[in-house]
């Protein structure tokens, strides 16, 4: 990363303030469309100053950082540590190459440029850190079961992709440790003849079917396309109207939102079926992860898609997928005794990035 003279002066400013008590942290939420940066009090619950930058207007993340760090509000509350949550695959060594942008978010280089440690997490790793910051009002219970203290937890959710992470209790430090993963890229395991046909459809188009391909925003489009391949004679009126509506949509990126809207207002039964099918698959994957680690601490569904269709979530397809009623009885019972929640608070990733930054600052103070 090329370090500008301005960044060098920022580092000097940081060094001058080492004598002051550490009270501020940098929190970032970096997506394909917007980069949101904020300064938080260490013990705060929201940003005291924040800015949102359209990613298309900047050649690199370093350019965004330089503009933000030059703000007077930042200079007056210069951070002691920072955590950036990136909507991307798992980040290695605090570095993340974004696929939707030509941006490399390089934590060590940013740390050197600005004089404070910058950590880089993927977005669902940040969600995992944010779970402990949520209140009861931030959660919708989907499966009412007792939360077991210090038991494993799972976070999973459909958005641009299918993010997931596990939380394991660290008795040595008396806190949860977030274990990020790429569960969404595991091979899709279909249930029932229709999901099997969906998997075959995806394989015929793409050569392989990952769970994420049928359990994210674009996965909703794929499922809808698949449902339109049904024999026209089976549902002539529905399929004809849906196909006409589908063909009229110009931007592919807008299709999932329009399908969701049509499902919620009931104007398109094919859209309702597509949403229910996606939610069932998300529930199945959540149940599989719950069984993998015996997540009696709770399974938490996040991601923008589930919140967008929350009324349809409450109908029950997601819970039915989670409970695995037609599986072996002892494992259905395990899932029935596992708490399941929908996360309503869409700022959970920022809360998690803040919680991580606060934790890292505390560890630095003890060293």
What is the succession of H and E elements?
A: HEEEHHEEEHEHEEEEHHHHHEHHHHEH
Could you give the order of strands across the largest sheet?
Answer: 8-13-12-9-10-11
Rg, rounded, reads 22 Å
Strand content: 15-25%
Give the helix proportion (percent range). 40-55%
DSSP summary, beta strand count: 13
Explain this structure.
It is a single chain. By secondary structure, the protein is α/β, with parallel strands linked by helices. The protein contains 15 helices and 13 strands. The chain has helices at residues 5-16, 61-69, 72-75, 107-114, 123-130, 192-206, 217-227, 236-247, 255-265, 269-293, 304-308, 310-313, 317-323, 329-336, 348-366, and strands at residues 24-30, 34-41, 47-54, 81-86, 95-97, 104-106, 117-122, 139-143, 153-158, 162-170, 175-180, 299-301, 340-343. The strands form 3 sheets. A 6-stranded mixed sheet has the order 8-13-12-9-10-11, with helices on both faces. The protein has a 5-stranded mixed sheet with strand order 3-2-1-4-7, sandwiched between helices. Strands 5-6 form a two-stranded antiparallel ribbon. Helix 7 packs across helix 10 (269-293), helix 9 (255-265) packs across helix 10 (269-293) and helix 10 packs parallel to helix 13 (317-323). The longest helix is centred in the last third of the chain and has 25 residues, at 269-293. It is globular and about 65 Å long. The protein starts with a helix and ends with a helix. The relative contact order is 0.15. Mean pLDDT is 89; it is low at 16-21.
